[in-house]
Write a structure and sequence with these properties.
- This protein is mainly alpha-helical.
- The chain has a domain of 102 residues: Lysozyme.
- It has eight helices and no strands.
- It is globular, with a radius of gyration of 18 Å.
């Protein structure tokens, strides 16, 4: 699907998300059931997680952005560019999930930034780590476009050379998405 029709569908779906979550605090948790839970001793392979809807993915990303004091539209734009808000996305280089985090990045960044190991297959962990990385880069570089470049090309490269010419399309594309999402009040 071309990028702009997909964006139109995402923006239309966002209105539903805003209506659904407008009356609920971000910390709203499901109420425990009054039905007894049966415990079974059946051992089976880990279940494959159900595919997240775009609304569910956006809700997770918005919470992660707010948790790390980031503009939700900034995080939504990065995730949309990286994965199309698809937790099942895998890149040819091995990046995983909503925020397309590399496993080797998660190995050091999870303990350092979130103080625990992360499971990149878990959409909440994936969104939290991606947002934490963006926050870390933004804090160090003090420029959102440089933070985007660091997310894409690495912090060392940005510090040494600035934004690579090959990273310019990535940075500018995400910045345009962020502005569109901001205008549409997608991040709330």
């Amino acid at each position: 699907m071309p990028r702009f029709p997909r964006l139109a569908v995402a923006l239309a779906a966002s209105a539903t998300l805003i209506v659904l979550f407008a009356g609920q605090p971000a910390s709203a948790a499901p109420q425990p059931s009054t039905q007894p839970v049966l415990q079974t001793a059946v051992h089976r392979a880990a279940p494959v997680a159900a595919r997240l809807s775009a609304a569910q993915a956006r809700a997770i990303l918005i919470r992660a952005a707010r948790h790390h004091n980031l503009n939700p539209n900034f995080v939504l734009a990065v995730s949309y560019w990286e994965s199309g808000w698809n937790q099942a996305a895998r890149s040819r280089t091995g990046a995983v999930g909503l925020m397309q985090v590399e496993p080797y990045t998660a190995a050091w960044a999870g303990p350092r930034l979130l103080h625990h190991r992360v499971n990149l297959s878990n959409p909440v962990d994936n969104a939290e780590l991606g947002a934490a990385l963006l926050r870390s880069y933004l804090t160090q570089l003090r420029d959102p476009k440089l933070a985007l470049a660091a997310y894409y090309q690495g912090l060392t490269g940005v510090r040494k050379y600035g934004i690579y010419p090959s990273s310019r399309r990535y940075v500018d594309g995400i910045w345009r998405l962020r502005n569109r999402f901001q205008a549409a009040h997608l991040g709330g």
